[in-house]
Amino acid sequence: MELAIIGRCNHNGKTVAFPIFGNTSFAEVCSHVCSRFDELVVGTFDLTYAAPGHPSCLIQSDMDVRVMHLFFINEKKTSIDINISDHMIVEAGAYANAENSCGGRQHPC
After folding, report:
1. Is residue 99's pLDDT more than 50?
2. What is the CATH number of the domain that holds 27?
3. Are 82 and 7 spatial neighbours (Cβ–Cβ below 8 Å)?
4. For residue 33, what are the domain limits?
5. Three-class SS string for the chain?
6. What pLDDT score was predicted for residue 54?
7. What pLDDT, on a 0 to 100 scale, did the predictor assign at position 22?
8. pLDDT per position as a tens digit, 20-45
9. Which of 54, 73, 75, 81 has the highest Cβ tally under 10 A?
10. What SUPFAM superfamilies does UniProt report for this protein, alphabetically (predicted)?
């Protein structure tokens, strides 16, 4: 059985958790996050994590997800807090395209 770590995300006072396996893709992480936080729109937030005693790491690719998974499996940690940081929207309506909305519609990330 493949080992998973539990990813925990908090946004606007709501926390969700989901499993992250060694073959979990960045798009799958985004899909989990976006399907649970309907107010998030692609391109308006960053995902980061920090290992104890290490600086924060940006999650932007499949490789970033794999490195995060490997690090926490090797450290025998079972969960990771994934931070959601909102971007400032510079241009009104820049991210208003419904095709880019999260929540299980189209390709979320």
Report:
1. no
2. 3.10.20.90
3. yes
4. 5-100
5. CCCCEEEEEEECCEEEEEEECCCCCHHHHHHHHHHHCCCCECCCEEEEEECCCCCEEEECCHHHHHHHHHHHHHCCCCEEEEEEEECCCCCCCCCCCHHHECCCCCCCC
6. 87
7. 93
8. 999 999 999 988 898 899 888 777 78
9. 73
10. CAD & PB1 domains (SSF54277)
Q: What is the per-residue pLDDT across 46-93, written as a single tens digit (0 to 9) for each?
A: 999 998 888 999 999 999 999 999 999 999 999 999 999 987 555 544
106 within some domain? no
Contact 107, 27 (CB under 8 A): yes
Residue 107 confidence (pLDDT) above 50: no
Is the pTM higher than 0.70? The answer reads yes
What Cα–Cα distance (Å) separates residue 21 from each residue in 28, 41, 51, 78, 104?
Answer: 10, 24, 17, 11, 20
Assigned domain for 78 exists: yes
- Backbone phi and psi for residue 100, each to the nearest 5 degrees, phi listed first: -95, 0
Q: Report the domain count for the chain.
A: 1
d(CA 26, CA 46): 12
